[in-house]
Each structure stands twice: as structure tokens, then as C-alpha cells.
């Protein structure tokens, strides 16, 4: 089959790059970070979903640890991934938003240190499969210049909207697929999106097969590896929504085919259940290869749920008890699933209310690998929580976010409180006790001026100016 030849050719390219990886002691665990795209806090059964079926992720949580207060790096794609890769919060990381024209400001720089670069110093071979969104093939943010030994997937996030693209990147080469695409007229950083009129090769399926091949190759070399599997499910094809009214692209509706729902609703549910089964496939593979006990797998989402496929949010309630969706700094936009699976190390059926976020992956991975991360981070390892050592777990004084679209906003989470300021720098501060009011329905700012003042100082002190964004009018003047 052509699809098998595609996967074979991808594997050959990657095998040439990973065979030279340095072996290390068995005390260094393999690490796999699986990132969903626009998956809500309430989209999984283990987080309260009642309609969409996610048995394998529910099983993953039952066999591992479910975090109830885990946060994305931001409420949209690129900056959230920048936080994940650099261990710096939104006031410090370079990529602050999704660029519409100048893609250079949505690319990591040479001076930015990624978690892949840190793990490489500890002898890890690093593979990236899926959506990158932090640099194109011709600039410093290209993943093979940011610590990854191999890459297969999308570089540009508009390219990643289309699940049936005409090509994917294999290293720095375009791998042609069998799909045919009708383009729209809107250019995003020089890249025009669209939808496929001939649909054969579904990118998500290729990603899962490539991830499986990478794991097999690394197991054969007997060295530690880091796999960043950045899936695009359940992100909508926004261009297909605008052009055709349905952005939920999936090969079939699966178990939802006979439901009395719109095609958009069937597609949204089918995408999530398809992803769920594929995560289970990865876990099964680790067990079959007898490396499950040597491998930490962490699953999360880059931000809250979207409403961009034309589907009915009320049917699925994807943010559960939380207020807001993608592009909000309320909990629904940034509090996301966080599931850790590491048989023999992470306690089965455990739940943690430790407050952590994407930026903490840097310190966590470095501690587990015995590597030294950069000193200028906003990152605290949650490895003690994973290992059942709560007395050793350090905690953040606060977590910080900022967002430049839709008039801009800032937020901080500290103790039981959450504060939001809209617009940035100058707006009125809202205050919520999210331990008692998880839906952020009761603004208590007027009753606690001293806490508002504390939150305001945190926000003021956390923002480091970034002219690459601010000169383009993306943030108000202070």
C-alpha cells in the first residue's frame, strides 16, 4: 500500500538520524509527552465526560495519576508550546502569541533552550512527531536546531489545520501525500490553508504509526529517549469550517455513526475517541516491548476546548465545571487534563491536586534525567509528586499567563485564588476563590482589596517587555 510505503520512507529517514544516539544508564527513564490540541478539561471520561467515550485514557488515569490542577502554558497554541519547551512562563518566553503575518516572532531563537536540548546533554535521543508551530524550516526555531534528532509532521499551524494535507515534513524535506487540497484566499504567515477534495492519507494516523516506529527503533538501541508526540486532534480545520461549514475532519464516525447528531458533532466525538484508542496503542506497545516500567508517559492538552468545527458545545460540555474555552484566561481556557503513567513508579489510581503547569515539564524532565536545566526558568519539578514524595514537593508562589488577542488580558493563580486583569496592565482586576468557586462565578475582588493588590503586583512584576509583540499593537502601553 502507498500508505505503508510512506511510513516506511519516514522511518528510514528517522533511523539514519537516531542510530547515533548515546546510550545511557537504565536509571534514566524514557519520557513520552503526548499533547492533544484543543482538548478540554471535561472532554475525557476520567474528568467527567458523559457522552464521548475515552476508555483508554480513563484506563491510563486508573493505572497512573490524574492531576486536577494542571495548567497549559497559554490559552492558544504557539505560546503554550513555547512555555512547554522552554520552561518559562508567558511573561518571559519569547513566543507570546499566534502570529498572523510575521512568522519570525512565532519562532524560537538560538538563545532559547528547549527541554530537548537539556535532555540531549544527558544522552537522550529526542524525536518530535506531530505539530511543532515554533519555527519554519528556514529559521532558528526549526526543531532539528532546537535539540530534536528527528522530526515528522507540521511546522506551520495553519498547515496543521488540515488533516489531509498535500505534504508533511520529514526532517527538512517535504514528503508528498496522496491528498488534493482546495485552498482558501487567506494567507497566514505566507501559508494558505484549505480543505482536501481528495482524502486518502490522514495525518493523525501517520503520526501514530511514526511514533510507534520511533519507539521500536529506540528500544532496539537500548538508550534513553524523549518522544514529543504533538497530536492535532481535536483541533478543527478552521478553513474547512469557513469554506464548508464542517471543520471536524475524521475518516469515519466510528461508534457515533448512527447517532442522531450533526456530522460536526459526530466528527468531534469520533476524533477524540480515535485519539483515545491510539494513546492506548502506545501504552500497549510499551508493555509489549517490556519497557513500560522504564517509561514515563504524560498526557495533556495545549489549551482549553474550541468551538471552531461547527459542533455543539452544549452536547459535550467540554470544559466541564469550568468557565470559558480557548482564548479565555478563565479556568476553562487554561486548566487542562494531566495524566501521568509510569508502571511501578507512579501509584495506580492516584489523584493529585498539586498546582503545576506546562513550564514545569522542563524541571521535571531534567530531574528525572539527571540533567542541569538553565537557571532562568519559571519551572519547578513535579517528579516528587509522581514518585509519591509529597514532603519533597516544592510549590510555585504563583503561576502567570498573558494573552495578546481580543484586547489582551493577564492572569495569576496563587494559593486558592485566581486573578484576571482585562485588558493587560490597565484593566480592572477580577478575583476568584477557585477552590470554593471552580466555575469562577463569584467575583470577590471588592471584598479583598489586599489580595487584589497582591495579585496586581504579581502581574506587574511578571511581565518582561517583548517588543517583537508589543510594537505590533498586540498589548496596550503600560
Write the layout of secondary structure elements.
Layout: H1 2-18, E1 30-36, H2 55-63, E2 65-67, E3 70-71, H3 77-86, H4 115-120, E4 125-131, E5 150-154, E6 167-170, E7 173-176, E8 180-188, E9 191-198, H5 203-221, E10 225-230, H6 238-244, H7 263-288, E11 295-301, H8 313-316, H9 331-334, E12 338-341, E13 350-352, E14 356-357, H10 360-369, H11 383-386, E15 399-403, E16 409-414, E17 417-422, E18 428-433, H12 449-462, H13 467-470
Parallel strand pairs: 1-10, 1-11, 2-13, 3-14, 4-5, 4-10
Antiparallel strand pairs: 2-12, 5-6, 6-7, 8-9, 11-12, 15-16, 16-17, 17-18
Helix pairs in contact: 1-5, 2-7, 5-7
Q: Please give the count of helices.
A: 13
Largest sheet, in brief, is: 10 strands, mixed
What's the rounded overall pLDDT mean?
Answer: 92
Please give the number of β-strands.
18
What does the overall shape look like?
Answer: globular
Strand content: 15-25%
Keywords:
single chain, 478 residues, alpha/beta, ten-stranded mixed β-sheet, four-stranded antiparallel β-sheet, 28% helix, 20% strand, disordered N terminus
Descriptive account of the structure:
The strands form 4 sheets. A 10-stranded mixed sheet has the order 7-6-5-4-10-1-11-12-2-13. A 4-stranded antiparallel sheet has the order 15-16-17-18, with helices on one face. A two-stranded parallel sheet has the order 3-14. It is of the alpha/beta class and 478 residues long. The protein has 13 helices and 18 strands. Helix 2 crosses helix 7 (263-288). The chain has helices spanning 2-18, 55-63, 77-86, 115-120, 203-221, 238-244, 263-288, 313-316, 331-334, 360-369, 383-386, 449-462, 467-470; strands at 30-36, 65-67, 70-71, 125-131, 150-154, 167-170, 173-176, 180-188, 191-198, 225-230, 295-301, 338-341, 350-352, 356-357, 399-403, 409-414, 417-422, 428-433. Helix content is 28%, strand content 20%.
Amino acid at each position: 500500500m502507498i500508505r505503508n510505503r510512506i511510513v516506511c520512507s519516514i522511518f528510514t529517514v528517522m533511523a539514519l538520524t537516531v542510530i547515533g544516539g548515546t546510550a545511557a544508564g537504565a536509571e534514566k527513564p524514557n519520557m513520552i509527552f503526548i499533547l492533544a490540541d484543543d482538548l478540554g478539561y471535561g472532554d475525557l471520561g476520567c474528568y467527567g465526560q458523559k457522552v464521548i467515550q475515552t476508555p483508554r485514557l480513563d484506563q491510563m488515569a486508573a493505572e497512573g495519576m490524574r492531576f486536577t490542577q494542571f495548567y497549559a502554558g497559554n490559552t492558544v497554541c504557539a505560546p503554550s508550546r513555547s512555555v512547554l519547551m522552554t520552561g518559562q512562563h508567558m511573561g518571559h518566553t519569547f513566543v507570546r502569541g499566534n502570529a498572523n503575518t510575521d512568522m519570525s516572532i512565532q519562532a524560537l531563537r538560538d538563545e532559547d533552550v528547549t527541554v530537548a536540548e537539556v535532555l540531549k546533554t544527558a544522552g537522550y535521543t529526542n524525536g518530535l512527531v506531530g505539530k511543532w508551530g515554533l519555527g519554519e524550516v528556514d529559521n532558528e526555531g526549526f526543531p532539528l536546531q532546537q535539540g530534536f534528532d528527528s522530526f515528522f509532521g507540521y511546522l506551520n499551524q495553519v498547515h496543521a489545520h488540515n488533516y489531509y494535507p498535500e505534504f508533511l515534513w520529514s526532517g527538512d524535506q517535504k514528503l508528498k501525500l496522496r491528498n488534493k487540497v482546495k485552498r482558501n484566499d487567506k494567507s497566514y504567515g505566507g501559508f494558505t490553508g484549505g480543505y482536501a477534495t481528495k482524502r486518502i492519507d490522514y495525518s493523525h494516523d501517520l503520526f501514530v504509526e511514526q511514533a510507534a516506529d520511533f519507539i521500536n527503533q529506540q528500544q532496539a538501541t537500548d538508550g534513553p529517549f524523549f518522544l514529543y508526540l504533538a497530536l492535532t486532534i481535536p483541533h478543527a480545520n478552521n478553513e474547512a469550517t469557513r469554506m464548508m461549514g464542517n471543520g471536524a475532519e475524521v475518516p469515519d464516525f466510528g461508534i457515533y455513526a448512527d447517532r442522531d447528531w450533526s456530522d460536526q458533532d459526530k466528527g468531534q466525538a469520533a476524533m477524540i475517541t480515535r485519539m483515545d484508542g491510539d494513546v492506548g496503542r502506545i501504552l500497549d506497545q510499551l508493555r509489549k516491548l517490556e519497557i513500560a516500567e522504564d517509561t514515563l508517559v504524560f498526557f495533556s492538552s495545549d489549551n482549553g476546548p474550541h468551538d471552531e468545527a461547527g459542533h455543539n458545545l452544549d452536547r459535550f460540555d467540554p470544559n466541564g465545571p469550568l468557565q470559558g474555552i480557548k482564548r479565555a484566561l478563565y479556568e476553562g481556557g487554561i486548566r487542562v487534563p494531566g495524566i501521568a503513567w509510569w508502571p511501578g513508579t507512579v501509584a495506580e489510581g492516584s489523584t493529585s491536586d498539586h498546582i503545576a503547569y506546562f513550564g514545569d515539564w522542563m524541571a521535571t524532565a531534567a530531574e528525572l534525567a539527571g540533567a542541569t536545566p538553565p537557571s532562568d526558568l519559571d519551572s519547578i519539578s513535579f517528579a516528587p509528586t509522581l514518585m509519591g514524595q509529597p514532603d519533597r514537593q516544592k510549590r510555585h508562589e504563583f503561576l502567570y499567563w498573558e494573552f495578546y488577542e481580543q484586547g489582551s488580558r493577564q492572569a495569576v493563580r496563587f494559593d486558592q485564588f485566581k486573578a484576571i486583569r482585562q485588558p493587560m496592565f490597565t484593566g480592572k482586576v477580577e478575583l476568584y476563590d477557585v477552590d470554593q468557586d471552580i466555575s469562577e462565578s463569584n467575583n470577590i475582588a471588592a471584598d479583598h482589596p489586599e489580595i487584589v493588590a497582591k495579585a496586581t503586583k504579581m502581574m506587574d512584576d511578571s511581565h518582561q517587555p517583548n517588543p517583537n509583540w508589543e510594537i505590533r499593537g498586540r498589548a496596550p502601553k503600560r
